[in-house]
């Protein structure tokens, strides 16, 4: 549903944060905070965070008046267990993202871990391309997750690949509340 | 000055976001938002942002009660013009960072663009190593900037190198308020 809001950006770009290293979601959250600080209307769709709303960033982001959060999937990585429920969750997440991108209510839309959903075959690259083609020009789109397909890299304006030069999990250090989630 | 605050983390790690790609500062800001959401006491020291306090992330971060921001340097990249003032600003930034890391008042300290100051010779790697050695174990430290020296990569627990697969600036798209600053 289109609104009468004057678009903040003349031309919204398509950005991808991919790669095996840590920092992809954090970079998208950092960008969202910056945009929200300038008054942009921001929608973050989490494809694989589930109901784990103790994530620290959720607390801050959900307190901002011009930020909307929608979380789907399971608490862990959806690749681990592709149940019927996971499939439904991915479908709902993609519907929510499509509505956010094309509905005229947001200036920046983040699709966090969409690449995981693509790798698992829960969403197709063609669906994402159709969404991008339907995107109003002023909407900025950020997609995250390892394993971005070549077709989306080709379409994107900005692609950062985050390489894990050193990753604490591979050194036996577990995820810590407050820092890692 | 030490406080009686119970440290949030048992062991704070040292993380580096480096590389030529976009997302380094955003990742650090995203991590800060997550940490602040969990009640960690966060201090961000910006080595090269200067008085440009119209950065969108500053507005949100500075509104959070447990986040402290300190900004030094010049509005642009300090490498471009290393004046006496730039040198003094870098010195002050490093003093502020040292105080934040060792003073007991913060659980997470971000040194944004410290690598730029190192590359410019405004701060030495030895100074940073001495600071790290003086760091209480519970303090988490995040350093950003392209060109992280090998000695710091060796010391760090987490190193993400952000590669610019595609960068909009190289395609003639200029930095945009609301998204890029």
From TrEMBL, chains A, B:
Example GO BP: cobalamin biosynthetic process
Organism of origin: Dehalococcoides mccartyi (strain CBDB1)
Protein name per its UniProtKB record: Cob(I)alamin adenosyltransferase
Molecular functions (GO terms): ATP binding; corrinoid adenosyltransferase activity
UniProt key word Transferase: yes
Assigned keywords, A-Z: Transferase
Signal sequence interval, chain numbering: none
Gene3D superfamilies: P-loop containing nucleotide triphosphate hydrolases
Superkingdom as given in the UniProt entry: Bacteria
InterPro entries xrefs: CblAdoTrfase_CobA (IPR003724), P-loop_NTPase (IPR027417)
EC number: 2.5.1.17
Gene label: cobA
